[in-house]
């Protein structure tokens, strides 16, 4: 059983369960395994990122690979460069939306996707084995190179795909004191936006702290106060974005998929007539897509499952409620900056505000409760729980939804209820949680 790799790479508390020794051995394995050993490394702004960058780079070069350091960058910019500039693979050092004391290691394949489970298992086996890979000697020792210039190619890609004049738009962005502090202001300024930038002074400690896409109410207040046309809040590594309309309405991933799905359908660009969501997407989205005659596929939670479904079926749009949206025509992963440009493109071409584009989508109130259990799989098979869930779904009819699932990484059962109001959500969630707790005792 893998101890560290989850749905989004390795993540843990820096120098506790994510150590320099681990990073060094991961670097060794990749430097030894990849054919030419050309590996791109990027990082976010948290305190431990440079430490892990040094360890990974040392491990790569020790075993004969070459580490190209992109510096502080967004995850999608690194993925784009790995895929398009002939790298054998890439490593992004980030814990995304987590606090500064956490960090993570995402390993990217040459095709621009996350590595498969079999490769993850091999890396994990090496981390904990007594085996040592042969060290390179003489001229075989790898190099560590500065590759910050690579971001220019990512910018050219965005400007080519989105040649927008944003001079008519008053925009505010929240960079979460993370990766987007490098990328987003530069791109919006080059596109002539009337731009205000907030939370763009990273100090190693303040990434995601009371800011960014996980603290969206801060941006809502700023948009309403400053009379902006639109606001965008990114997460720590800038692969997600949540938008805010001019009147302060939150536009999450479900609303983004709805807005862009409609646009692509009207343009005849929604291949196979479907979008991809996860099972956690809001019931309101599914109902509205049905109304618009847009099909959809549901995957398990995790952007890699969304992308896998898109690849297998040729779909062009997919994503998660969190704001991790994939436009496969342009990228193989979620890109918060690209998504914000796509929304602005739709606004500009339709002449409509973001509120006008999304306000007909009713988002059902939702509650999510995590319950710690001894055996999550056995709990989900329990007859009493299954009967209770069926009873609640029958009471909700088609005006609500019950979803009870196991956590992918922890001993938790997640209870999600959607209903017409908050009171019903709480009532039915409490009833199901009570059954789970009785089962667990």
Give the number of DSSP strands: 19
Distance between the termini: 27 Å
| Count of alpha and pi helical runs | 15
Largest sheet: 7 strands, mixed
Average pLDDT score = 94
Spatial strand sequence of the major β-sheet:
1-2-6-5-3-4-7
Radius of gyration: 22 Å
Computed structural class: alpha/beta
Return residue spans where pLDDT drops below 50 for at least 5 consecutive residues: none
Strand content: 15-25%
Shape: globular
Helix content: 25-40%
Short description:
With 441 residues, the chain is α/β, with parallel strands linked by helices.
Structure commentary:
This protein is of the alpha/beta class and 441 residues long. Helices cover 40% and strands 21% of the residues. It contains 15 helices and 19 strands. The strands form 5 sheets. Strands 1-2-6-5-3-4-7 form a 7-stranded mixed β-sheet, sandwiched between helices. A 5-stranded mixed β-sheet has the order 9-8-10-11-12, with helices on both faces. β10 and β11 form a beta hairpin. α1 runs parallel beside α2, α1 packs across α4 and α14 packs antiparallel against α15. The protein is globular and about 70 Å long. It starts with a strand and ends with a helix. The mean pLDDT is 94.
Task: Sum up the structure in keywords.
five-stranded mixed β-sheet; alpha/beta; 441 residues; single chain; seven-stranded mixed β-sheet
Describe the secondary-structure layout:
Blueprint: E1 5-6, E2 9-13, H1 20-33, E3 38-43, H2 49-62, E4 66-72, H3 75-84, E5 89-93, E6 102-109, H4 117-128, E7 144-146, H5 151-161, E8 170-174, H6 180-190, E9 194-198, H7 216-226, E10 230-234, E11 241-245, E12 250-251, H8 253-266, E13 274-278, H9 283-291, E14 295-299, H10 303-313, E15 317-319, E16 325-327, H11 336-350, H12 354-358, E17 366-372, H13 376-381, H14 383-396, E18 401-406, E19 412-418, H15 422-440
Parallel strand pairs: 3-4, 3-5, 4-7, 8-9, 8-10, 13-14
Antiparallel strand pairs: 1-2, 2-6, 5-6, 10-11, 11-12, 15-16, 17-19, 18-19
């Amino acid at each position: 059983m893998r101890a560290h790799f989850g749905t989004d790479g390795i993540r843990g508390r820096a120098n506790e369960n994510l150590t320099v020794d681990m990073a060094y051995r991961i670097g060794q394995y990749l430097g030894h395994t990849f054919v030419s050993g050309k590996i791109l490394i990027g990082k976010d702004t948290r305190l431990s990122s440079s430490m892990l960058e040094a360890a990974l780079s040392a491990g790569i070069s020790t075993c004969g690979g070459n580490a190209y350091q992109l510096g502080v960058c967004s995850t999608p910019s690194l993925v784009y460069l790995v895929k398009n500039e002939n790298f054998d693979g890439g490593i992004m050092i980030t814990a995304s939306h987590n606090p500064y004391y956490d960090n993570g290691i995402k390993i990217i394949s040459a095709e621009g996707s996350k590595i498969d489970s079999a490769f993850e298992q091999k890396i994990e086996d090496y981390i904990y084995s007594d085996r040592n890979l042969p060290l390179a000697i003489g001229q075989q020792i790898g190099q560590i190179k500065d590759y910050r210039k690579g971001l220019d190619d990512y910018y050219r890609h965005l400007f080519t795909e989105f040649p927008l004049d944003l001079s008519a738009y008053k925009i505010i962005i929240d960079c979460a004191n993370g990766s987007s502090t490098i990328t987003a202001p530069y791109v919006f300024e080059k596109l002539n936006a009337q731009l205000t930038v907030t939370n763009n002074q990273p100090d190693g400690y303040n990434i995601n702290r009371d800011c960014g896409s996980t603290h969206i109410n801060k941006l809502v207040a700023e948009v309403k106060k400053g009379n902006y046309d639109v606001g965008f809040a990114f997460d720590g590594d800038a692969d997600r974005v949540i938008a805010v309309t001019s009147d302060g309405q939150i536009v999450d991933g479900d609303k983004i998929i709805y807005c862009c799905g409609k646009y692509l359908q009207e343009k005849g660009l929604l291949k196979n007539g479907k979008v991809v969501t996860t099972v956690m997407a809001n019931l309101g989205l599914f109902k509205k897509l049905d109304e618009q005659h847009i099909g959809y596929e549901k995957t398990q939670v995790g952007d890699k499952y969304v992308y896998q479904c898109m690849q297998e079926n040729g779909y062009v749009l997919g994503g998660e409620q969190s704001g991790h949206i994939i436009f496969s025509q342009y990228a193989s992963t979620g890109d918060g900056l690209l998504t914000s440009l796509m929304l602005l493109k739709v606004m500009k071409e339709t002449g409509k505000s973001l509120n006008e584009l999304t306000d007909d989508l009713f988002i059902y109130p939702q509650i999510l409760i995590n319950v710690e259990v001894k055996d999550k799989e056995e709990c989900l098979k329990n007859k009493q729980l299954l009967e209770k869930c069926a009873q609640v779904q029958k009471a909700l009819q088609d005006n609500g939804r019950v979803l009870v699932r196991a956590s992918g990484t922890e001993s938790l059962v997640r209870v999600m209820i959607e209903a017409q109001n908050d009171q019903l959500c709480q009532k039915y969630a409490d009833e199901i949680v009570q059954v789970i707790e009785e089962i667990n005792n």
